[in-house]
Fold this sequence. Notes:
Elements: E1 6-11, H1 15-27, E2 31-37, H2 41-51, E3 55-57, H3 60-64, E4 71-74, H4 81-90, E5 94-98, H5 105-117, E6 122-125, H6 132-143, E7 149-159, H7 177-193, E8 199-207, E9 213-222, E10 228-234, E11 236-247, E12 250-254, E13 268-272, E14 275-279, H8 286-300, H9 309-327, E15 331-332
Parallel strand pairs: 1-2, 1-4, 2-3, 4-5, 5-6, 7-10
Antiparallel strand pairs: 7-11, 8-9, 8-15, 9-10, 11-12, 12-13, 13-14
Helix pairs in contact: 1-8, 4-5, 5-9, 7-9
Amino acid sequence: xxxxxxxxxxxxxxxxxxxxxxxxxxxxxxxxxxxxxxxxxxxxxxxxxxxxxxxxxxxxxxxxxxxxxxxxxxxxxxxxxxxxxxxxxxxxxxxxxxxxxxxxxxxxxxxxxxxxxxxxxxxxxxxxxxxxxxxxxxxxxxxxxxxxxxxxxxxxxxxxxxxxxxxxxxxxxxxxxxxxxxxxxxxxxxxxxxxxxxxxxxxxxxxxxxxxxxxxxxxxxxxxxxxxxxxxxxxxxxxxxxxxxxxxxxxxxxxxxxxxxxxxxxxxxxxxxxxxxxxxxxxxxxxxxxxxxxxxxxxxxxxxxxxxxxxxxxxxxxxxxxxxxxxxxxxxx
Length: 333
């Protein structure tokens, strides 16, 4: 590619796009947001004006037909991820797709295959793992300071249950707390341990008031050596966003594990040998870092930090979690 910046288009005007990802791309070193599309052209026009985006379209197809767009960000509801990732790949656009990548592992596999076929990059939008905190955490673990890992606990909950029209509460759209926030501690445990779980057991509250999606789920993922992730996630519970890694000689606490506050709560706390210390981390925009990872991969040919097959692996775990919750049984992966 001859140009110096990756030219991004955005398919949809979702809150996460307007609030976080578009500003992140605009703050990145490698990208510019060149266009935005919505099925409601007026909404696209308003969002473009609000965020300083030069071009807007009244359909996703029109944006994909724009030769001045190199990559697209897809913040659409979960059930549309597969369709528009594949259509973007067919149009020769690189793709950053919001998490979860798909509704099932099989869909994620189709998305990966389509992007490989058309020679474009595919990344799943787990922004948290691009934050330098996770490299710091892995360095602490590798140093032996907390000993051998014995367990991980993660939680991500919020309460938005009164918003009855929210897409998170529509089954056919891929609603549910496991899809929306449970994916984070599951992804984080896989990242920290560097391995895939062997089995999943999950108990969930499926709410009749919310189209029978899981409004709360609690589970355990079994990893090698007797290590487990215990987690809970919810959309009708008080807010938490935490991760704890327990070792034989200490523990690591991450008070803001998946989103950042740009304040000392972003820091990591290590307790070992009876002493608790605070590890300062940079206050950086992990959405910008996420955009730069794809940008450098396209512009410079560097490998993506996280291969698209990671999205397939994570979806296999989510599939097992939902099967376990629906059948009230332990599911072997």
